Inverse folding.
C-alpha cells in the first residue's frame, strides 16, 4: 500500500523556495523548553566523577603528593597523579611541523613534577559523586616549591625573564614575518606617518554550558565511547587514539546538545584527556563537568596582545605602507592540537586586510607565559587586526584632514592586484564588496545628520563618537591552510543523504551545531531542493558513529562548506530519482522538476512523490523501467579546491556617548552591512551578526581575565568577569550586500565571526572619536571606566 | 563548585529558628539565598548548620503605619517594589530598588537579608542609613533595636551577633514633600554599584529643611555625609549650591583602593553623580 505523504505529514510547508526564507527555527523550541540533552544530562550505570586538584601557583615544582587522607573519605574510589596516568597516556606534543621555530613543552594530562600555570591539573580524585570528590580533593596534600614565573607579555619578553617551563631558557614560542623585509621607502616618501601602540586584554569564551565529558572505556569490547561538549568530534577521535595508543576505529565520540562553544570547545584539554585516561585506567565510566571557576582558569584564553603600528599615507589619504609588530601571549603550553599561534598569525597578517596598503610588513612573536594556554576564540586574531587597522585609519584621516568614512572609501580593495595570487601579507581573496557595504551603511545611519548632531552636542560638553570598522573575514578555512602546517585535521564538510522508504530524508552531516542553528539551515536548504516541508528532513550530527568524516564547526564553515556538500548530495539524489521518473514518464530527465515533494513532468503532477519514489526504489525495484535502482544514500564532501578559505567582508558602525566625568560608555546605535554571499536563512544570519557584535562589544567594554602580578587569576566569577548583557546593548541594524562566492554552487560564505571581528574596532574608534575634543585616547582594551578616566585625566593634566 | 557538607534545618517558627541559632556554634540563616548559596558553593562560607527561615509563617509582612514602614525578614525585594503604598511612604526605596539586581534575583532576595549581609555595594543598607532606619535583632535572649547608622561597621561587618536574627527593619515614613536622591555607577544595569549616592532632601518654604545623603559602594560601609548636610540646611536650592555640595561630597568620601578605579577617579565620579542627582531632586522639588 502506498501511503500518501500528506496523510502523515500535514503540509505545513512554509515556503516553496527555501534559500533566503526567514524560516523560524523549530529545533530551538526543544532547547528553550529545557528539553535539550547536554553532557551533564547523561548518566551511565556505574559512572564515577572527578574533581581535580589544581596547581595553586603560576609556576611550581611538585615535591611530593600524599593522597592517603583523601582515599579514606566515603565514596572515594581513586586518587591518581600524573606519574600514574603517564603509564597509559602520552602528553600532548603540540609542535606543528609546518610552523618553523614553533616550540612548546609537552603537556601531560596531569602535571608531573612541574606545573606551569595556576589551575593546571595535578591530581584526579575519583568518587561516587562530584561532591564527594571535591571533599576528598581538599584533603590531598601536595608539597610545592614555588618557582619564579613570567606572567605578562612584557615580563615574558624581558632579558631577565624566568623560564615559563624548565625545558626552555627563554619564552619565545613563535617568530614570524609577513610581507616585505623592509618598507622604509614607503615611509620616507609619505606626506604623513602616524604611529600608535595597542594592547588587548586576555579574554575567554564564557560558554553558557561549560566544557564537560563522559568517557567510557569498555574493557570487555576494548572500545572507548566519549560524550563531550565539543565542536569537532572527529578530531577528538584521532586525538584520543593518539594519546592512548588506541585504534581510531575503536573509539566513538559523540557531541550531544552543546550550549555554546565559540572556539573554546575546539581544543583538546588536559583535564578532559585525564578523564578519558582515568576511565581507561579504572574501566568505569567517568564524568567530568568543568565548573565555572575551572572554566575561567582553564578554558582556552585568547586575545592577549601588544602591538605597535605605523602607517604611511600620501597627502590625499592613500595608504602607502604599514609596518607593525604584534606580540601575542600564548600561555604555558601551545593548545592541542592546533597550537596557539593562529591568533597571533592572523592578528598580524590581517592588519590592513580590507585596504590597498602599499608596502606591508608585520612581524609577530608569540610568548610563553605562566598563564592558562590560549587558543581559538570567535574571530581568532582578526578582531585584533581589525581594531589596529581601523584605529590607524582614523589617525591617518585626522592627520590628512579628511573624513574617516571617506578615508576608508578611497583605500578599499576589491580584488587582488592584477597578476598576483595574494596580497602583500599573503591573503588570498576572491572579490570584496566594501564600497557597496559602506554606501549602504552610511545611508542607513544617516551619517551627515549624525556628524552634525555630534558637533552640536560637543558645544554642551556632551561627547559622542562615531566609529567605523571595515573587515575581511576568512571563513570556511580548509585543508589548504592546515595541510601545509602538518596538522592532521579534516577540514572538508560532508553530507550523507538518505531517502527513506517513506519519502523522508535523513541528512547525516559532519557539521556540528552549538546553538547557531546551522542544522536547521541545512535542513531548510535540503527541503528546498525537493520542495518539501523542513520537518521531512531529519538531521544527524555530532557523532563519529553515525556521521560522515569531516570537520565540524570552526571558522564559519557550516553553511559555506557543509551547505554546499548538502546541496551537491541533493542534486545527485535528485538526478538519480529523475532517471527513474524519466523512465516511468517516458520523457527526458531534464524535463522534470520537484514541486511540493512531487515530480512534475511535461504533463504536470505525476503522482511520483518522494514517498512513492522511496517505496518504488526500496520495495518494488522491479517496477523501475530501466531496472536501475539509483543509490538511496549519497555522500558528498566539499572543500573549495583553489582557495584556502572563502573571504566575506562588511562594514560596522557604532554611535556612542562617553561620559567624561563618570568614565562610562553608552551605546546609542549600531549598524552593520555584511556580505556573506548567499543567505539561506536571514533570521539565523542576522542573529549570528548580532550575537557576534554583542560578543565584540563585550571585548571592547567589559571582558578581561585579570591576573595578579604573580599569576593568580583574580576575577574568576561571573560577578567579576563582566560579560555584556541585553540591557546595555544598542539596537543593532543589520543589512546585506550579496556577492555569492564562485567557489561553490550555493554561493554562501561564512558569517559566524563577522560580528566579533568588527565590533571591537568600531567601539574603539568611536570612543577615540568621542574623546578627540579632549585630546584623549584609549589604547588598551577593554575600555573600562578606569581606562577612560585615566585617558581623560591624563589629557587634563597636560593642559 | 559544590558546597561543603552542612546540616539543614527548616525552621517552623521564629522561636524554632532562634533556638536553633542559639544552640549551634556555627549556624547561619538562609533567607532568599541569593548571596548565601553562591558563597556556600564557592566554599567561601562553610557553616555547620543552615537554618532555612523561608517556611516560617508570618515573616513576609509589610506594615505601613503613619510614622513607620515595618519590613519583615521574608519580604522579597520584588514584593516591596510592587507595594505602591510602601514606595509612596518610602520614595527613596522605590527609586533604589530597581537598581538592586535583576527581577529573578529580586523575586527571591530579601530586603532584610541584604541589610543583614552588609554588602558595601548594596543599595538597601545605604538607604537604611540615609533614612535613619531601625533594625530589630532577636535572639533567645530577647530583642534589641539598633539604629542603621550604628549597625554597619565595615565590609560585611555589622553589629549583629551570629546567633541573632534580623526580624524587622523599620523605616521612617518620608515627610510630605521630601524628595529622594539616588543614583549610582554600575558596570551594567542591576550590578552592584561601584559607587552611589542615596539620600532624601526636604525643601520647605523655599529652603532646605532636611537633607541626608549617603555615599556607598566605594566605602567599607555606607557613609553618611553629615558635613554635606550642614552646608545645605537653611539654604535655598540653586545651581551654585549644588556645585558646592557636589564638591563637598567629593571631598568627604574616603574611597577604598580598587582595581576598578583610583580614589581620585572615585571623587571625580562622585562630584559628577552628585551634580546630576541633586539637580534632578531639587528641580523636582521646585515644581
Ligand atoms: C546576580 C546577582 C546580582 C545582585 N545584585 C545586587 C545588587 O545590585 N544590589 C544588591 O543590593 N544586591 C544584589 N544582589 C544580592 C541580593 O540582593 C541578595 O538577595 C541580598 O543581598 C541577600 O538577600 P537574601 O535574602 O538572598 O539573603 P541570603 O543569601 O539568604 O543571605 C545572605 C546573608 O545574610 C544572612 N541573613 C539573611 N537574612 C537574615 C536575617 N533575617 N537575619 C540574619 N541574617 C540573615 C544570611 O545568613 C547570609 O549570611 C545580587 C545577587 C545576585 C545573585
Amino acid at each position: 500500500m502506498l501511503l500518501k505523504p500528506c496523510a502523515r505529514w500535514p503540509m505545513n510547508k512554509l515556503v516553496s523556495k527555501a534559500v533566503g526564507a526567514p524560516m523560524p527555527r523549530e529545533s530551538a523550541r526543544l532547547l528553550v523548553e529545557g528539553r535539550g540533552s547536554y553532557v551533564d544530562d547523561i548518566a551511565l550505570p556505574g559512572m564515577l566523577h572527578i574533581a581535580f586538584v589544581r596547581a595553586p601557583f603560576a609556576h611550581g615544582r611538585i615535591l611530593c603528593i600524599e593522597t592517603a587522607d583523601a582515599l579514606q573519605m566515603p565514596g572515594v574510589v581513586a586518587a591518581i597523579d600524573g606519574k600514574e596516568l603517564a603509564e597509559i597516556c602520552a602528553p600532548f606534543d603540540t609542535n606543528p611541523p609546518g610552523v618553523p621555530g614553533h616550540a612548546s613543552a609537552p603537556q601531560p594530562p596531569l602535571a608531573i613534577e612541574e606545573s606551569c600555570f595556576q589551575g593546571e591539573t595535578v591530581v584526579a580524585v575519583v568518587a561516587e559523586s562530584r561532591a564527594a570528590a571535591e571533599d576528598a580533593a581538599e584533603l590531598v596534600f601536595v608539597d610545592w616549591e614555588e618557582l619564579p614565573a613570567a606572567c605578562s607579555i612584557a615580563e615574558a619578553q624581558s632579558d631577565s625573564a624566568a623560564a615559563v617551563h624548565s625545558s626552555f631558557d627563554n619564552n619565545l614560542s613563535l617568530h614570524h614575518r609577513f610581507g616585505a623585509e623592509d618598507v622604509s621607502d614607503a615611509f620616507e616618501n609619505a606626506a604623513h606617518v602616524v604611529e600608535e601602540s595597542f594592547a588587548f586584554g586576555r579574554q575567554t569564551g564564557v560558554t553558557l554550558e561549560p566544557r564537560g565529558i563522559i568517557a567510557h572505556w569498555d574493557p570487555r569490547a576494548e572500545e572507548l565511547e566519549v560524550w563531550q561538549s565539543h565542536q569537532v568530534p572527529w578530531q577528538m577521535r584521532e586525538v584520543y587514539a593518539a594519546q592512548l595508543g588506541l585504534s581510531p576505529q575503536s573509539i566513538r565520540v559523540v557531541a550531544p546538545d552543546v550550549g555554546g562553544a565559540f572556539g573554546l570547545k575546539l581544543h583538546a584539554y588536559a583535564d578532559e584527556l585525564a578523564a578519558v585516561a582515568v576511565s581507561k585506567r579504572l574501566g568505569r565510566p567517568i564524568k567530568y563537568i568543568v565548573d565555572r571557576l575551572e572554566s575561567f582558569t582553564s578554558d582556552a584564553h585568547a586575545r592577549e596582545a601588544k602591538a605597535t603600528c605605523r602607517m604611511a599615507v600620501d597627502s590625499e589619504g592613500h595608504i602607502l605602507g604599514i609596518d607593525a609588530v604584534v606580540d601575542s601571549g600564548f600561555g604555558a603550553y601551545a593548545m592541542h592540537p592546533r597550537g596557539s599561534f593562529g591568533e597571533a598569525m592572523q592578528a598580524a597578517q590581517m592588519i590592513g586586510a580590507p585596504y590597498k596598503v602599499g608596502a606591508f610588513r608585520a612581524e609577530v612573536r608569540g610568548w610563553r607565559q605562566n598563564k592558562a594556554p590560549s587558543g581559538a576564540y570567535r574571530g581568532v586574531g582578526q578582531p585584533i587586526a581589525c581594531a589596529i587597522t581601523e584605529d590607524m585609519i582614523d589617525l591617518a584621516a585626522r592627520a590628512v584632514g579628511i573624513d574617516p568614512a571617506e578615508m576608508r572609501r578611497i583605500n578599499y580593495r576589491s580584488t587582488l592586484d592584477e597578476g598576483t595570487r595574494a596580497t602583500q601579507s599573503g591573503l588570498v581573496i576572491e572579490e570584496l564588496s566594501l564600497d557597496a557595504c559602506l554606501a549602504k551603511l552610511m545611508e542607513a545611519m544617516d551619517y551627515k545628520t549624525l556628524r552634525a548632531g555630534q558637533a552640536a552636542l560637543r558645544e554642551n560638553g556632551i561627547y559622542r563618537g562615531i566609529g567605523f570598522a571595515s573587515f575581511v573575514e576568512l571563513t570556511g578555512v580548509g585543508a589548504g591552510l592546515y595541510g601545509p602546517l602538518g596538522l592532521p585535521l579534516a577540514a572538508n564538510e560532508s553530507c550523507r543523504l538518505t531517502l527513506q522508504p517513506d519519502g523522508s530524508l535523513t541528512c547525516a552531516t559532519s557539521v556540528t551545531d552549538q546553538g547557531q542553528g546551522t542544522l536547521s539551515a541545512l535542513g531548510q536548504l535540503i527541503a528546498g531542493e525537493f520542495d518539501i516541508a523542513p520537518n521531512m528532513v531529519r538531521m544527524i550530527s555530532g557523532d563519529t558513529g553515525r556521521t560522515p568524516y569531516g570537520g565540524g564547526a570552526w571558522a564559519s564553515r557550516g553553511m559555506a562548506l557543509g551547505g554546499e556538500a548538502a546541496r551537491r548530495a541533493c542534486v545527485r539524489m535528485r538526478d538519480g530519482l529523475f532517471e527513474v521518473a524519466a523512465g516511468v514518464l517516458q520523457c527526458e530527465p531534464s524535463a522534470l522538476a520537484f514541486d511540493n515533494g512531487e515530480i512534475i513532468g511535461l504533463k504536470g503532477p505525476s503522482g511520483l512523490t518522494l514517498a512513492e519514489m522511496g517505496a518504488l526504489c526500496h520495495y518494488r525495484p522491479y517496477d523501475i523501467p530501466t531496472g536501475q535502482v539509483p543509490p538511496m544514500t549519497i555522500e558528498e564532501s566539499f572543500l573549495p579546491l583553489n582557495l584556502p578559505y572563502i573571504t566575506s567582508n562588511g562594514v560596522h558602525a557604532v554611535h556612542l556617548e562617553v561620559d567624561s566625568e563618570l568614565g562610562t560608555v553608552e551605546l546609542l546605535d549600531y549598524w552593520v552591512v555584511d556580505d556573506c554571499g548567499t543567505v539561506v536563512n536571514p533570521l539565523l544570519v542576522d542573529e549570528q551578526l548580532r550575537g557576534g557584535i554583542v560578543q565584540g562589544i563585550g571585548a571592547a567594554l567589559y571582558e578581561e581575565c585579570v591576573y595578579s602580578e604573580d599569576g593568580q587569576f583574580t576575577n574568576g566569577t561571573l560577578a567579576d568577569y563582566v560579560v555584556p548583557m541585553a540591557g546595555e546593548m544598542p539596537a543593532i541594524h543589520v543589512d546585506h550586500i550579496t556577492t555569492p562566492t564562485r567557489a561553490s554552487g550555493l554561493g554562501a560564505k561564512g558569517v559566524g565571526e563577522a560580528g566579533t571581528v568588527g565590533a571591537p574596532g568600531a567601539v574603539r574608534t568611536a570612543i577615540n572619536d568621542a574623546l578627540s575634543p579632549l585630546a584623549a585616547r584609549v589604547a588598551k582594551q577593554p575600555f573600562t571606566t578606569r581606562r577612560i578616566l585615566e585617558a581623560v585625566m591624563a589629557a587634563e593634566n597636560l593642559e | 563548585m559544590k558546597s561543603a557538607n552542612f546540616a539543614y534545618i527548616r525552621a517552623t517558627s521564629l522561636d524554632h529558628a532562634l533556638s536553633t541559632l542559639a544552640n549551634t556554634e556555627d549556624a547561619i540563616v538562609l533567607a532568599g539565598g541569593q548571596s548565601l548559596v553562591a558563597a556556600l558553593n564557592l566554599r567561601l562560607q562553610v557553616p555547620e548548620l543552615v537554618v532555612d527561615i523561608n517556611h516560617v509563617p508570618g515573616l513576609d509582612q509589610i506594615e505601613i503605619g503613619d510614622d513607620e514602614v515595618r519590613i519583615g525578614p521574608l519580604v522579597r525585594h520584588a514584593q516591596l517594589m510592587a507595594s505602591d503604598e510602601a514606595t509612596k511612604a518610602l520614595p527613596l526605596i522605590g527609586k533604589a530598588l530597581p537598581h538592586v539586581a535583576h527581577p529573578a534575583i529580586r523575586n527571591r532576595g530579601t530586603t532584610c537579608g541584604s541589610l543583614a549581609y552588609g554588602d558595601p555595594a548594596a543599595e538597601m543598607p545605604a538607604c537604611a542609613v540615609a533614612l535613619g532606619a531601625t533594625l530589630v535583632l532577636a535572639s533567645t535572649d530577647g530583642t534589641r533595636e539598633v539604629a542603621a547608622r550604628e549597625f554597619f561597621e565595615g565590609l560585611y561587618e555589622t553589629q549583629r551577633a551570629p546567633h541573632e536574627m534580623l526580624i524587622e527593619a523599620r523605616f521612617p515614613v518620608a515627610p510630605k514633600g521630601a524628595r529622594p536622591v539616588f543614583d549610582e555607577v554600575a558596570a551594567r544595569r542591576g550590578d552592584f554599584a561601584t559607587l552611589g549616592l542615596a539620600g532624601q532632601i526636604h525643601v520647605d518654604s523655599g529652603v532646605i529643611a532636611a537633607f541626608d545623603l549617603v555615599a556607598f559602594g566605594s566605602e567599607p560601609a555606607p557613609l553618611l555625609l553629615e558635613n554635606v548636610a550642614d552646608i545645605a540646611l537653611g539654604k535655598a536650592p540653586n545651581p551654585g549650591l549644588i556645585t558646592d555640595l557636589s564638591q563637598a561630597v567629593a571631598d568627604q568620601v574616603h574611597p577604598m583602593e580598587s582595581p576598578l578605579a583610583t580614589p581620585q577617579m572615585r571623587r571625580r565620579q562622585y562630584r559628577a553623580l552628585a551634580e546630576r542627582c541633586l539637580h534632578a531632586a531639587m528641580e523636582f522639588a521646585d515644581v
Summary: The two ends of chain A are 90 Å apart (CA to CA).
